[in-house]
Amino acid sequence: MQNFLFSFNAIFPVAALILLGYILRKTKFISADFISNSSMLVFRIALPVLIFRNIARTDFSKVFNGEEIFLSVGMTIIIYFIAWFFAGKMSEIPAEQGPFVQGAFRGNVAIVGTAIAMNIYGPEGAARVAMHVCFLMPLYNILAVIVLTVPMGKNNAGGWQKILLKIITNPLIIAVVVSLPFSIYSIPIPVIFQGAIDYTAQLTLPLALLGIGGSLSFSAFGKHPVLAVIATALKLIILPASTILMSVLLKLNIQDPGILFLLMGAPTAVSSFIMTKEMGSDEVLQANIIALTSFVSMFTLGLGIFILRTLGMI
Q1: pLDDT digits (tens, 9 = 90+) for 233-286
Q2: Measured distance CA(127)–CA(149) in Å, rounded
Q3: Domain that holds residue 205
Q4: Residue 193 belongs to a domain with what CATH number?
Q5: What's the whole-model pTM score?
């Protein structure tokens, strides 16, 4: 019972805010404009400030683990190619293949991963997630561009400069880079700024989770249900389970398997819908995968945390 309550307490605040966002959008209490503007505020200001604060206040040696990052990056690439193989077997329609693959590998680690890590480990756990985000975010963008371009037979060479610029100017990556000297050399944040930084950081998770809930839609789920279900299984079950298994088999120096599980088991990122739409692939399938993984992940993450806690791995 104690392990169940631990898992429930880790997941419920996140699930409750996502559900609240969904209800508020359906009842028109919040609008699409509110979701768009608040998401922009989170991505460009609040979340970078949260990442900066958490890393800057934490000893670098406690949040950076090269073997953990190697495994999270490596397993993301492996599931990417596995999903691409299945996509070719399951659908002959090029516009469906890219969204299927993107749904299977691109996780909402910056928001959902950070939120649950905060509930379990506190700011240090969120800082450790941020270190992974610094490597995973560029990887996600590069892999997404490839899989959304190649099946469609497009020559997207001109888009590489644009995506590279997006990576370099990504506020989350900039926040990690700026915070590193504070963490490595134990430089204190000036007292005069600490209050404003704390207030801004505290905006992040409530606004972000409400935005995720408000952007969910299940109205078109009747289209591509099989593809959406299989992509969900790859993202929420196969990827996190195989990552934990691989960490055990390789006997890697993993500080806490729970962080890896949260990173790999996070639902498909909402941002994947935007990229799918921009690249001319099947945006309905992508929306279905985002909605399904967001809903199912609250159960799979809770179950995974319960199992890891029972095994003494959290």
Answers
A1: 999 999 999 999 998 888 777 777 899 999 999 999 988 887 788 778 888 899
A2: 33
A3: 2-310
A4: 1.20.1530.20
A5: 0.88
